[in-house]
Design goal:
The protein has twelve helices and nine strands. By secondary structure, the protein is α+β, with helices and mostly antiparallel strands. The chain folds into two domains: 77 residues, no CATH class; 228 residues, Bira Bifunctional Protein, Domain 2 (BirA Bifunctional Protein, domain 2, 2-Layer Sandwich), CATH 3.30.930.10. Helix 2 packs antiparallel against helix 4. It binds phenylalanine (PHE).
Length: 351
């Protein structure tokens, strides 16, 4: 009997929906019962051949069942929607704009792409140098940019009346506080904090009242280095710096040591790298000399050891301070230091 078939169909449809575990399975059930070739369609097709008294009643019942099953299907789908509490919220969560012009959310639109930032070339250089020196056994130390005169000058063997103070007569906040003019301050801080052997580098910003041009800025970055132990010689300094520059610039790099003076090292040297911007032919970055000074270095002056309370008879050491901008310029062939600080993305995005 057709009526029984309808009743059986209803209970099977309900069972199948209750068992469905995914939206796909529900869809499968829907197609099976309500689809163009589904079970209900089959029954509908048989109705015209029924005796006239049954025709209209069966027609009604089949339609009724169709509605009932589609309600059940909708109900089952809601189990999988984000707001499964369908009794209080009957509106679909997400509409597309075509359906609802006021809808604020069109899932089909592509997302807005956020441009990625990246690490500034100066920071990249600092990171690279940190990693090179860490392989040579150097730890990384930091000191404050706002510094006491004592660490910037006095402890570094620059007494108040020393002529070299004038070169670095720098940015003072009051009598004793200043923006450090060199990272050598961290030598003192580290030696006071630790006992030898010491092997450290100290990256950071320094400030000088220099006139800004292609090679000078009033703020730039240095990386200080310090090694203190028994029996350290100038040879060790040369070895460390040559190894570093070969790793950073490549085996063919030319380096020269010029005798120089720093109050806190004796003997002292300034170290130049052959100008890679003009291939040592002469340009504005190397002042047409073919060489660019990239660091100052020397053997720690015994007076500095005295200032931090180390036995200068027992310990020797070397120190160096290099200019990060200069190294980066030589490495990449950049001919103007100001480019690093202008925040021009056309420049920065090349690194
Ligand atoms: N502090 C020196 C400068 O700023 C560089 C330096 C560091 C020289 C350590 C010798 C030893 O120029």
């Amino acid at each position: 009997m057709m009526q029984e078939r309808l009743v059986a169909l209803r209970s099977r449809a309900k069972d199948d929906l209750a068992k469905a575990k995914t939206l796909n399975e529900i869809e499968y059930v829907r197609v099976h019962y309500l689809g163009r070739k589904g079970a209900i369609k089959e029954i509908m097709k048989a109705i015209p051949s029924l005796p006239p008294e049954e025709k209209s009643m069966m027609g009604k019942m089949a339609n009724q069942l169709k509605l009932e099953i589609s309600d059940e299907v909708e109900g089952a789908k809601k189990r999988f929607s984000p707001s499964s509490d369908s009794s209080t919220d009957k509106t679909p969560r997400l509409k597309n704009n075509a359906q609802d012009a006021k809808g604020s959310f069109d899932l089909s639109l592509p997302g807005k792409r956020q441009p990625y930032g990246h690490i500034h070339p100066i920071t990249q250089t600092i990171n690279e140098i940190k990693s090179i020196f860490s392989k040579l056994g150097f730890a990384v130390e930091y000191g404050p940019e706002l510094e006491q005169e004592y660490y910037n000058f006095d402890a570094l063997n620059v007494p108040p009346d020393h002529p070299s103070r004038e070169d670095f007569d720098t940015f003072y906040l009051d009598n004793k506080l200043l923006l450090r003019s060199q990272t050598s301050t961290v030598q003192i801080r580290t030696m006071k904090k630790r006992r030898p052997p010491i092997r450290m580098i100290a990256p950071g910003k320094v400030y000088r009242p220099d006139t800004v041009d292609a090679r000078h800025a009033s703020m730039f970055h240095q990386i200080e280095g310090l090694l203190v132990d028994e029996g350290v010689s100038f040879q060790d300094l040369k070895y460390a710096l040559t190894s570093f520059s070969k790793i950073y610039f490549g085996q063919d790099i030319k380096m020269r040591f010029r005798p120089s003076f720093f109050p806190f090292t004796e003997p002292s040297a300034e170290v130049d790298i052959s100008c890679s911007i003009c291939n040592a032919k002469g340009c504005r970055v190397c002042s047409h000399s073919g060489w660019v000074e990239v660091l100052g270095a020397g053997m720690v002056d015994p007076n500095v050891f005295e200032a931090v309370g180390y036995d200068a008879e027992k310990y020797t050491g070397f120190a160096f301070g290099m200019g990060v901008e200069r190294l980066t310029m030589l490495r990449y062939g950049i001919d103007d230091i100001r480019l690093f600080f202008e925040n021009d993305l056309r420049f920065l995005s090349q690194f």
